[in-house]
Specification:
Elements lengths: L1 H20 L3 H5 L14 E2 L6 E2 L16 E2 L2 E2 L2 E3 L4 E19 L7 E9 L5 E9 L2 E23 L5 E9 L3
Antiparallel strand pairs: 1-6, 2-5, 3-4, 5-10, 6-9, 6-10, 7-8, 7-9
Keywords: Signal
């Protein structure tokens, strides 16, 4: 019995030390390479009062943990009119170099938009994407930045009408 306790103690100390070896300040700023934008990680849609939530009785937030769930033939998403902004803020500033966002894909609309990364100071904005996004998931890779917020700007609407609609968004550091 004493032999088992000694083995377990030595195993746990080796295991604990090896885990701590991987925790670095950069890993913390990179949120251990996980999505920093989810609601459960402290993400917030700070322009919610100015945005439109299209489907009642479902979670329309692009920060939700669940992904695609139709409700009577519609999918929950957030939308803004022409020149509107969807701003997503993290609980703290993180080093990120990749975002993914899922544009409304129940039809063939192509959205003309820009995405800005807002620096830790809350003022400095860096354009990380500009262009036309087809329906579905768009991934944008960029040089690592210390980011506090992401702004999705509806530059020219879409090919069907003026709104920009986002189903889900993610931000993380990719190796």
């Amino acid at each position: 019995m004493i032999f088992v306790v000694v083995i377990l103690q030595s195993f746990s100390s080796v295991y604990a030390n090896s885990c701590l070896d991987y925790i670095t300040p950069k890993a913390i700023l990179r949120r251990n390479y996980q999505d920093v934008m989810q609601t459960t990680n402290g993400g917030i849609l700070i322009t919610a009062r100015n945005n439109m939530f299209i489907v009642p009785q479902v979670d329309n937030s692009p920060l939700r943990n669940s992904i695609y769930f139709p409700y009577h033939g519609q999918v929950g998403h957030v939308a803004v009119p022409l020149h509107g902004i969807i701003t997503l803020e993290f609980i703290q500033s993180y080093l990120i170099n990749r975002i993914r966002f899922w544009m409304y894909d129940y039809d063939l609309r192509v959205t003309h938009m820009q995405v800005f990364a807002v620096d830790d100071d809350g003022i400095t904005e860096t354009l990380i994407y500009q262009g036309s996004v087809p329906p579905g998931v768009k991934m944008v890779q960029f040089p690592e930045l210390l980011v506090k917020k992401l702004k999705f700007y509806n530059k020219d609407g879409n090919t069907l009408y003026e709104h920009m609609s986002i189903i889900k968004a993610q931000a993380y550091y990719a190796i």
